[in-house]
Design goal:
348 residues; alpha/beta; GIY-YIG endonuclease; Alpha/beta knot; 3 domains; seven-stranded parallel β-sheet; 15 helices; 10 strands
């Protein structure tokens, strides 16, 4: 079975990268409906098949880090060039980011992606939601310690909302010690110290450590009802605690996972929503025209009363209306609104 990575060009000129199991059966419109394009009309610009889902997802992650300019430049060359660029650098499902360091030698080292260990999870739905949270931030290695309802769990798939890769690769262990045996650094997430004396870190501080140190790191998450037990925490080198409302310190499993995954992702080169530049403010003359029109209408309506406060009221209006920094389009739109209210524009 082949797995596909594809690029859609949307009606607004943007691009969307995704992956699919059977591209031949899916039209661009269907892909657009299922994807983050929100159903906007889209055209299939490029596709490439891969022998495994992991490679297709890896190529998708690579493409999503590209700028629109890079995608357009590759389109102007040829499909083979784009395919080669999509495959470049990936020898594993997800890329590892360069370590931020002072020396050139350490700057070229690679960060080991952390392992997320769910200890005695109870509900399949929560395992699926945790997988979804992980994959959102480029993490794919989940380990399960003695899941209550066994594994695989049919309830996990629907809750994962497409993060099947994480569930497929999930490994099951009989104890926490076995699950973290290959990890040099272990962190336990808990709101209580559980009678053990260990360093207590925020998610942000723990993530910085993980990025800076060599060797694999594991983050432990306890069962939904009671959290990690003291013996579980004893295996960890540090405790990770989320600053939280002391009167309501209840996080569900997926919430805890997404907080740690997000903090770790800050050190990675993941895709961000494209920045949309704001239109520059309109020339002062256009703004003055709008103000004169508004003041004229208000004067006719008897708004400036008593007359001795007219100038003060006009200054207040001007102060209010200069704060947004109206663009030319916004000024034209507002003048159209004023004209319509004044009766100068009629519906045809």
């Amino acid at each position: 079975m082949a797995f596909w990575t594809y690029i859609l060009r949307c009606a607004d000129g943007g691009y969307y990268a995704g992956h699919a199991d059977d591209l031949d059966r899916q039209s661009p419109e269907h892909l657009a409906t299922e994807s983050e394009t929100g159903g906007r009309p889209a055209a299939l610009m490029w596709s490439q098949n891969f022998p495994s889902r992991e490679e297709a997802v890896a190529a998708e992650m690579q493409i999503k880090n590209w700028s629109r300019a890079k995608v357009q430049a590759l389109f102007q060359k040829d499909g083979e060039t784009l395919s080669a660029a999509a495959k470049k650098r990936f020898t594993e499902p997800f890329p590892r980011s360069d370590v931020s360091a002072n020396s050139a030698s350490t700057r070229n080292e690679r960060v080991e992606t952390p392992v997320f260990v769910l200890v005695r999870p109870q509900l399949g739905e929560n395992i699926g939601k945790a997988a979804r949270a992980m994959l959102n931030f480029g993490l794919a290695e989940m380990r399960l310690v003695a899941p209550r309802d066994g594994w695989p769990n049919p309830s996990a798939g629907p809750a994962a909302s497409g993060a099947d890769l994480v569930l497929k690769q999930a490994r099951v262990f009989g104890s926490v010690a076995e699950a973290v045996a290959d990890c040099a650094h272990v962190y336990a997430t808990t709101v209580r110290k559980r009678g053990v004396t260990k360093p207590v870190l925020s998610p942000e501080a723990a993530s910085r450590e993980i990025h800076a140190q060599q060797g694999r790191s594991a983050i432990l998450f306890g069962p939904e009802r009671s959290g990690l037990e003291t013996d579980d925490v004893a295996l960890a080198r540090a405790i990770v605690t989320v600053p939280i409302n002391p009167e309501f310190g209840s996080l569900n499993l997926a919430q805890a996972v997404i907080l740690l995954a997000y903090e770790w992702s800050k050190g990675m080169d993941l895709v961000s929503p494209p920045e949309t530049g704001l239109d520059p403010p309109a020339p002062q003359g256009e703004f003055e025209g709008m103000m004169m029109q508004l003041e004229s209408m208000l004067d006719k309506a008897g708004f400036f009363h008593p007359p001795e406060r007219m100038q003060s009221t006009k200054r207040t209006l001007r102060t209010m209306l200069t704060k947004p920094g109206w663009s030319s389009q916004e000024v034209r739109t507002m003048r159209g609104v004023l004209s319509a209210l004044e009766g100068k524009k009629r519906r045809r």
